[in-house]
Design goal:
With 389 residues, the chain is α/β, with parallel strands linked by helices. It contains ten helices and 14 strands. The chain has two domains: 152 residues, 2-Layer Sandwich (VC0802-like); 168 residues, Rossmann fold (3-Layer(aba) Sandwich), CATH 3.40.50. A seven-stranded mixed β-sheet has the order 2-3-1-4-7-6-5. The chain has a seven-stranded mixed β-sheet with strand order 10-9-8-11-12-14-13, covered by helices on one side. It starts with a strand and ends in a 17-residue tail after the last strand. The protein binds S-adenosylmethionine. S-adenosylmethionine binds next to helix 6.
């Protein structure tokens, strides 16, 4: 297939602009930002590339069709009219999942079975199959998403969510999603030559994502994707995408990244995760309480997701930690500090108003990302910069 496909990179609320920036950095120009997604048109080879490279998107979906549907007949006929045979092989397995928000067609199980029936009829006709479809081949997860009577039909190209990089062999109690951790790093102006510290590192997600960004390592390099089995994407497109990821990785980039945590078990977990990510000894890990942190260099970046103090009995301790952090960092004005927390009193405890704030969701928890820019001269750093080499 040489014709273009429309792809949807799904994004957590608040991260759409960052996902769009990543899509553009891959060289795709026809990019539209919507709530919770970034839509772009590209050659089918964009499917391997987007899956391999997008650090902050949740999934990459292929848009099969988008239309208005207020009756089951309309849903059936419009679904059947789409060229499913362009994507789904004769023996493809295609479960249909669904969701419906503020729409006349609110029964999700009915919508799913109607869509399934319409695709089955279309494929039987096109492939000349009289009996039933075997569904013993590649996997295509079709989704019918209705929103205000608009039906969006997609096929998931990713398989498991893109946050599953394949390196997290262990985790603590409240690990950050890898996609959000990557976004926290991308929001900063950190350049890989500068010191980078997460003093509440837990299982190490932020530090590991920073190292992957710092060495321009494709986040999907160590995993598989559902669409690797799809016939309409050539093996060459996959081979080229993996080769490109290999070529653009900059393993010679020195890094100065440290993760520390009060809990020694988490340091062991973080170390193992970093090993699994192929980062070997690139990150320094240490068991340490935050109040012992003393920056030894200038122009560093502290990026962290500390405890929020939401648990019973934890609040006072956490508030003291925020005060301690503020007083340590006051003596190091060249450092930039980025803190994600749901604690609304953070700025007053830290003792300073943030240069910038950004609302983000950590799962279902509403948080703010407090950003304090250091007083050093800024270097403009654009992520995935190797694409413009
Ligand atoms: C929200 S978790 C961080 C999760 C981490 N971002 C991840 O992806 O796994 C907060 C971490 O702060 C650590 N912590 C709590 N009090 C601390 C202190 N006083 N000094 C250093 N670390 C502390 C906890 O052990 C926990 O791992």
């Amino acid at each position: 297939m040489t014709q273009k496909v429309t792809l949807i990179a799904t994004a957590a609320m608040g991260l759409e602009a960052i996902v769009a920036r990543e899509v553009k950095a891959l060289g795709y120009e026809d990019v539209q930002v919507e709530n919770g997604r970034v839509v772009f048109t590209a050659e089918p080879s964009a499917i391997p590339r987007a899956n391999l490279w997008l650090r902050t998107a949740d999934r990459v979906k292929l848009l099969a069709g988008r239309f208005k549907a207020t009756t089951f007949d309309e849903l059936f006929e419009k679904t059947k009219a789409l060229p499913w045979e362009d994507f789904i092989a004769e023996d493809g397995e295609f479960p249909v999942v669904g969701k419906s928000v503020k729409s006349k067609l609110y029964s999700v199980p009915d919508c799913q079975s109607i869509v399934k029936k319409a695709i089955v009829e279309r494929l039987k006709q096109k492939y000349g199959v009289a009996s039933w479809l075997k569904e013993s081949g590649a996997f295509y997860r079709v989704e019918i998403a209705l929103h205000k009577d608009e039906a969006l039909l997609t096929i998931d190209t990713s398989g498991s969510g893109l946050h599953k990089r394949g390196y997290r062999v262990g985790q603590g109690e409240a690990p950050l999603k890898e996609t959000l951790a990557a976004a926290l790093v991308q929001i900063t102006n950190w350049h890989p030559d500068q010191p980078f510290v997460d003093p509440f590192c837990g299982s190490g997600t932020i530090a590991i994502e920073a190292a992957l960004i710092g060495q321009n390592i494709a986040p999907g390099f160590n995993r598989e994707f559902a669409s690797e089995e799809w016939g309409f994407i050539s093996q060459k497109a996959w081979d080229d995408a993996f080769q490109e990821a290999e070529d653009f990785a900059n393993y010679d980039q020195p890094l100065n990244i440290t993760g520390s945590d009060i809990n020694p078990d988490l340091i062991t977990i973080a170390k193992n995760n970093a090993m699994e990510a192929g980062l070997g000894g690139l990150i320094s890990w240490k068991q340490m309480q935050m109040s012992d942190f003393k920056p030894k260099q200038d122009n560093g970046y502290l990026v962290s997701n500390p405890p929020y103090g939401e648990r019973m009995g934890e609040r006072e301790e956490v508030e003291q930690m925020y005060r301690d952090l503020g007083s340590i960092m006051r003596d190091h004005p060249s450092w930039s500090v980025y803190i994600l927390t749901s604690h609304e009193g953070f700025e007053s405890l830290y003792g300073k108003s943030a240069t910038k704030k950004r609302k983000l969701f950590n799962g279902f928890i509403k948080t703010d990302y407090y950003q304090y820019f250091g007083k050093s001269k800024k270097t403009k750093f654009s992520n995935n910069k190797s694409f413009s080499k």
